[in-house]
Amino acid sequence: MSVNYREKIAQWAYKEFVDFDTIPPDSDVLAYTKALLICANGDGKLAPAEKNWGIGFTAAKGASDKII
């Protein structure tokens, strides 16, 4: 039996941090990630550290390869 670790990570992260019982659809995760990076770019420059944090935060919540 194969275990989908990405899904397990996402289930845990969403429950732990925002008390969601289900994983949001990719469309919602993508919209949130875009909004996060837009906010990080509020000063007109998205620093590499800001971009890397946004990508890492999104990946840590089990986002799909397509989104990352």
Question: Which terms summarize this structure?
Answer:
68 residues, 3 helices, mainly alpha, 0% strand, single chain, elongated
* Low-pLDDT stretches: none
The pLDDT mean sits at 92
How many helices in DSSP terms? 3
Largest sheet: none
Q: Indicate the percent of residues in helices.
A: 55-70%
What percent of residues are in strands?
A: under 5%
Based on DSSP secondary structure assignment, what is the total number of beta strands? 0
Q: What's the number of domains? A: 1
Q: What's the gyration radius in Å?
A: 13 Å
Structural class: mainly alpha
Compute the separation of the termini in Å: 26 Å
Shape: elongated
Question: Can you describe this structure?
Answer:
The chain is mostly helical and 68 residues long. It has one domain. It has three helices and no strands. α2 packs antiparallel against α3. It is elongated and about 45 Å long. The model has no long low-confidence stretch (mean pLDDT 92).
Short synopsis of the structure:
The chain has about 70 residues and is mostly helical. The chain has helices spanning about 5-20, 25-40, 50-60.
Per-chain topology:
Blueprint: H1 5-18, H2 26-40, H3 48-60
